[in-house]
Amino acid sequence: MAVTLRSIEVAVPPTALVQHQLRDLFTAQPALGRLGARLATAAFNASGIERRHTVLAELAPGADTGATAFFDPATGRLLDPSTGTRNALYAREAGELFVAAAEAALGGCQGIGAGDVTHVVTASCTGFYSPGPDYRIVRSLGLQPSVQRSHVGFMGCYAAFPALRQANAICRADPDAVVLVAAAELCTLHVRVRDDQDTVVGASLFADGAAAAIVTGRDLGDAPALQLDDFASVLTPVGEEAMAWNIGDNGFEMVLGSYVPHIIDEHVESALAPLLSRDAALRGSAHRDVEHWAVHPGGRSILDKVETTLGLSAEQMRPSREVLRDFGNMSSATVLFVLRDVLARAAAGERVCAMAFGPGLTVESGLFTRVGSPLTGRGDDAEPVTVAAPRRELTGVR
Questions:
Q1: Where are the domains of the chain?
Q2: CATH class of 225-371
Q3: Is the dihedral of CA 56, 61, 65, 67 positive or negative?
Q4: Structure pTM?
């Protein structure tokens, strides 16, 4: 039985930040020392990002929001709210992004309606609340109250893969199952001003966004889809301290050591070996023989290492680099943005290898096959269609 990933759709907050403007705002912070300002300038300039989205509307130049717990426009200062304050805004805003992406994915899946969905699997690591986003999706989309719900929490940038693996297992156990998978992250809620490199690099990369898709084993005709072939999870022998995600008193704290790209350079081939060796058609082939790649754009240096080490072409890396350029690193949702682009580009029968990296250091990967008819209405050079989540005017959190 073939299980397929269908109708991948995305949602972003309406506030888009231009990278060089955000760089100037961050480097002007009085809490940042001379060294921190130099680190920030270099990190923002080398990020490969042109714009990214945030739920913090007050960060947009000229925004008329007044002072909030996150930003004081009168002084231009980024403030340092408590973890509770940050999480309260997550609870208010994340659900709207989850619902916007899920509604778009469900609406775009031919032959599937709200009453067909049997399971909801959500993923996020940038906040917590209960009843959570899985509950919100069921209520807002009018799904059956008997829908089974799961949440993949606090696993970081690779969490879309455990969510897809779970959906795959559900559908193989029950051929009639329809699983709605959704990931949303509000990374910008945890931006802080510190001189240390981890904080500076995080501020230069992370953004807000959501993505959702339908996974099912049902026969839906010739509709475009990605067949789920196999998954693998590998812990590298080093890197436990190089990438981590902790809860502090003033937000969640990212550990993103400068050695992470080197760890990926040294271990990405061995991390992919279990996945590729199990596929008879790819066993012994060069990595570039897999037509399409969906690499989580954790940062430009990570993409550079993957491209060089695996011998991939610039064209094979283009979807990852374009998502990084236009949206930044949205943690768990990001690789679904890339897969959405690949679905539009790939031809029937072509293979796709996807991977993401996260705390541990963990490498999650998956193999897919493009099936079905061409995806109409999206050219190769078209920007991904985004859905701006409806939201109330931001008045500040006290």
A1: 225-371
A2: alpha beta
A3: positive
A4: 0.94
